[in-house]
Specification:
Layout: E1 7-11, H1 18-32, E2 37-41, H2 47-54, E3 59-61, H3 69-84, E4 88-92, H4 93-107, E5 114-119, H5 126-139, E6 145-148, H6 151-159, E7 167-169, H7 183-193, E8 200-205, H8 214-223, E9 227-232, E10 245-247, H9 254-259, E11 263-266, H10 276-283, E12 287-291, H11 296-300, E13 305-307, H12 312-323, H13 327-344, H14 347-360
Parallel strand pairs: 1-2, 1-4, 2-3, 4-5, 5-6, 6-7, 8-9, 8-11, 9-10, 11-12, 12-13
C-alpha cells in the first residue's frame, strides 16, 4: 500500500509562541496517525525546531538573506513542493501564508497539491501589520482554503476585505495530558518561589508585547495586593513590578507554572484570536479571567470572569471576586473548566478538523484512523468535586 502524501507547513519561524505551539501539536497528532508532516521555517533555529524533530517531523529552513533573499527562498520552497508532492501546503501566519502562496504558484501542479492559509489573530495592529494585511487581502482568493483559529479572527479578516473561496474556523487544541492539576508540582514550585501554600496565585503567560497589555495587568495587580501574580513569557523579566508580582521570563515548563496557580488570567488588549494560555490554564484546573478579546467567551463558556480590555479596575475586581471564593469552590470550577477543554478543544479534535477541512478543499487525504483511546484513570482530575 502506497504511503500517504505528506502535508507541508510553511511558517515564519519556530520560536516560542501560540502558533508555533499549535503547529507542533498538530504535526505530532497527524504524524502519529499515519499522515506524514514536513515543516518549512523562514527563519533559522528556534526552540520548536527540536520539538518537531523529536516527533520525527523533518524541518526545512529557507531563510531569506541578502537582496535576493525572498526570491531565493520562494524558489527553494517551490523546488521542495515539486519534490515532496504534498497533498496540501498549509501556511501559518502572514509571512508563511504569502511565501506558501508564491511558491505554490511557481511549483505548478495546483490540482495535485492544494494550498491553505492560516490566520491566527483578530484585530491586529495596523502600524505593524497593515502592509501584510493589504497584500493578503489582494491575494486572499488564491488559496483553496483559509483556516482561522477563531470566529473573531475570521470576522476581522472579512471586514478587512479577505474573500476566501473556502474558509473554516478550527479552534486550537490543548494537550490535557500535559496541562493538568499536579499537586506535587504545585508544592515544589511554590516552595521554590517562596509562595505560601494558602496564597492565591494568578498566572499570566504571555510574551512582552503591546497586544498582551502587561500595563493593565500590573495596574490591576497593585489593586489586589493579596493576590500573588506570576508573569511568564519572554521579556517579562525586564518589567518594573509591584511587590505582589514575580516575573519568571521565558519558561519551557508552563505545565508546572500553571499547576502552582489558582487563577489563569489574560489581559490582552487586542489581536488575540484563541488564547492558548487561558485554555491551557483551564486544562490545568485553574479558574479563568480574560478580557473580552478574540474568542475568549467561546473558551470560557459560563466559567470564570470576562472583563473589558484596558480596564485595570474591572480586571482587579474580577481577580478579587475569585480570590474570596472558598478553595473548594475554585476547585469545583477548575474541574468543570478542565472537562470543557477536554470535550471541546482537544489536540485530537483539532487534527480531525484540519483533515476534514483539507479534504473539503480537494486535498487527496484519506480519513484519519481512530485515535488511540485515552488511558483510563480513576478520576479525571486529582481534584474531585467537593
Amino acid at each position: 500500500m502506497s504511503q500517504a502524501r505528506p502535508i507541508l507547513h510553511v511558517i515564519s519561524g519556530l520560536r516560542t509562541g501560540g502558533a508555533e505551539t499549535m503547529l507542533v501539536a498538530l504535526c505530532g497528532a497527524l504524524q502519529a496517525r499515519g499522515l506524514p508532516q514536513h515543516v518549512v521555517s523562514l527563519t533559522p533555529g528556534g526552540p520548536n525546531r527540536a520539538a518537531l524533530e523529536r516527533l520525527g517531523v523533518p524541518v526545512h529552513e529557507v531563510a531569506p538573506s541578502g537582496l535576493i533573499g525572498p526570491a531565493s527562498s520562494v524558489l527553494r520552497l517551490a523546488r521542495l513542493i515539486r519534490r515532496l508532492r504534498p497533498a496540501m501546503v498549509q501556511g501559518w501566519l502572514y509571512h508563511g501564508d504569502l511565501f506558501a502562496a508564491a511558491a505554490h504558484r511557481l511549483a505548478g501542479g495546483r490540482r495535485a497539491t492544494r494550498l491553505a492559509w492560516g490566520l491566527r489573530n483578530s484585530d491586529i495592529d495596523d502600524a505593524r501589520y497593515g502592509r501584510l494585511l493589504a497584500i493578503g487581502r489582494l491575494l486572499s482568493g488564491w488559496p483553496d482554503l483559509v483556516v482561522a483559529n477563531s470566529e473573531a479572527g475570521a470576522d476581522f479578516h472579512r471586514r478587512r476585505g479577505y474573500r476566501p473561496r473556502r474558509s473554516a474556523v478550527i479552534p486550537n487544541g490543548i494537550d490535557a495530558s500535559r496541562f493538568r492539576p499536579d499537586p506535587a508540582a504545585r508544592a515544589a514550585l511554590r516552595a521554590a518561589l517562596g509562595i505560601m501554600e494558602d496564597a492565591i496565585v494568578a498566572v499570566h503567560a504571555a510574551r512582552l508585547d503591546p497586544m498582551k497589555d502587561h500595563a493593565t495587568l500590573l495596574a490591576a495587580a497593585t489593586r489586589t495586593p493579596a493576590i500573588r501574580i506570576l508573569l511568564v513569557g519572554s521579556g517579562t523579566e525586564t518589567l518594573t513590578l509591584p511587590a505582589n508580582a514575580t516575573a519568571l521570563g521565558r519558561r519551557d515548563d508552563l505545565e508546572r507554572i500553571y499547576a502552582a496557580g489558582d487563577i489563569v488570567v489574560s489581559a490582552s488588549a487586542f489581536g488575540e484570536g484563541f488564547s492558548n494560555a487561558v485554555a491551557e490554564g483551564m486544562a490545568a484546573g485553574l479558574v479563568p479571567v480574560a478580557t473580552r478579546v478574540g474568542d475568549a467567551q467561546a473558551i470560557l463558556g459560563s466559567l470564570g470572569r470576562l472583563v473589558p480590555p484596558r480596564d485595570p479596575a474591572a480586571l482587579a475586581a474580577a481577580l478579587a471576586s475569585l480570590a474570596v471564593l472558598s478553595e473548594a469552590d475554585r476547585r469545583g470550577i477548575g474541574v468543570l473548566g478542565r472537562q470543557r477543554i477536554e470535550a471541546q478543544f482537544s489536540v485530537e479534535r483539532m487534527a480531525e478538523r484540519f483533515v476534514e477541512a483539507w479534504r473539503g478543499a480537494g486535498a487527496e487525504i484519506k480519513p484519519l484512523p481512530p485515535a488511540d483511546p485515552p488511558t483510563l484513570q480513576e478520576e479525571t482530575s486529582p481534584y474531585p468535586f467537593p
